[in-house]
Design goal:
6-stranded antiparallel sheet, 4-stranded antiparallel sheet, 18 strands, binds guanosine-5'-diphosphate
């Protein structure tokens, strides 16, 4: 579960991580009052679960009440990369002398938390050169020790006078990461103010969904209206769905098969739009639910349905697909690869239906090549 910036900052504050004082507002009038209480200048920040808000015009400085109200008016309702802004966080503005990057992530391959620090903050971390990011794996049984913080600070070559406070900040972020069962705690930027105070200016916290049972306060922070519209729709319909940013919709039965389908499509030169596991789902209503989620993403230009029949029978899946096509309007091509139990029968059913959108395929490679080709044909010139 991804938290909004202000929710992350509330958690930080509980673990002693310094954050600027702020208030939440859902209307321009509330933003004005919040700003007056805080004192000027303030920063009005869009609360959406996506980075790059600054560049998108979702973060604005206000020097008086009128400006705060006007900025909130402009930002509320704004669309930031597909997400609508419903709330703004009004925060006392910070005087920034330096911007760093700090994060704690769970590194699955090392099976350990990984702490990162870079002097190149404020920009997207993907754009920062590898060697400019200091990294340290933490043994979870030993924990994060003070010298770990200093070592990272030296390695990242941050200003010498803040090595100790930044090291201490990393220890607190690690403490928050563990205490809140997080998978990610990212602070970009971590700033040094003009008075050389170290403060978290942004907060990105992802909490392990499996831990929400013992983090009831965090579970209550879930805010469906700010989630990605497709992911929200998927959750409501009980579909396992992860949005990616390509144009080929992927559907399969079984997480492992879907994962390998993503790889094969990428290998064929396509970019997957999502991960969608229909499980054993062969019933028309399950396929309708999955296709509706998938097709509500306007970027999807073609769909690959990859089914390996085991207990799930391919003929049932074929019938389910046909019934689904009767119920919803599908304008993009759908490549269907059926293999396994009753696959011949399934392909025969699809071929006889003679639906213009359907393209049966036998092997995964054949299906991937075809779907990539069709997605490009359909693309506007
Ligand atoms: P993001 O664009 O979604 O990552 O949002 P951030 O909270 O990281 O803000 C983006 C940038 O806006 C920061 O890197 C700062 O340069 C700037 N910014 C945000 N808050 C303040 C502030 O209080 N004072 C100043 N001077 N700049 C700020
Ligand atoms: Mn940021």
């Amino acid at each position: 579960m991804d938290l909004l910036e202000y929710q992350g900052k509330q958690l930080f504050a509980r673990r002693g991580v310094p954050v600027p004082e702020g208030r939440l507002a859902t209307s321009p009038d509330e933003a004005r009052k919040a700003a007056e209480e805080l004192g000027f200048p303030v920063v009005v920040k869009a609360q959406v679960q996506i980075g790059g808000r600054g560049k998108a015009g979702g973060i604005k400085l206000a020097n008086d009440a009128g400006e705060a109200e006007a900025h909130a008016e402009a930002i509320l309702g704004m669309d930031i990369r597909g997400l609508t802004v419903h709330e703004v966080w009004v925060e006392r503005a910070s005087d920034i002398a330096a911007e760093y990057y700090a994060a704690v992530v769970f590194d699955r391959s090392a099976k350990k938390p990984l702490v990162m620090l870079s002097a190149a903050g404020g920009m997207e971390i993907e754009e920062v050169a590898e060697e400019k990011i200091a990294r340290l794996h933490v043994d979870p049984l030993v924990g994060f020790l003070p010298f770990h913080g200093r070592r990272l600070a030296f390695e990242a070559a941050i200003d010498a006078d803040v090595v100790r406070p930044v090291g201490a900040m990393l220890a607190k972020l690690y403490d928050a990461f563990i205490g809140f069962d997080a998978m990610l705690v990212e602070v970009n930027p971590l700033i040094v103010t003009g008075d050389r105070e170290v403060t978290a200016l942004d907060a990105k916290v992802t909490v392990d969904d499996n831990a929400l049972g013992r983090q009831p306060e965090i579970a209550e922070m879930r805010n469906p209206s700010t989630e990605d519209p497709q992911e929200q729709m998927a959750k409501e319909r009980g579909v396992t769905y992860v949005k990616l940013d390509g144009e080929i919709g992927i559907l399969g039965n079984g997480a492992g098969l879907v994962m390998s389908t993503l790889d094969v499509v990428a290998q064929a030169g396509g970019r997957p739009a999502n991960f969608l596991d229909v499980g054993g789902g062969a019933k028309a209503e399950e396929i309708v639910a999955a296709l509706e989620v998938l097709l509500s993403d306007e970027k999807v230009k073609a769909v690959l349905f990859n089914i390996f029949g085991g207990i799930t029978r391919c003929d049932e899946v074929a019938n389910g697909i046909l019934q689904a096509l009767d119920q919803i309007d599908v304008s993009v091509p759908i490549v269907v690869r059926l293999d396994g139990t009753n696959d011949e029968e399934g392909r025969r059913i699809l071929a006889e239906a003679d639906a213009a959108q359907l393209h049966p395929a036998k092997t995964m490679l054949e299906a991937a090549d075809l779907v990539v080709k069709l997605s490009k044909e359909g693309a506007p010139a």
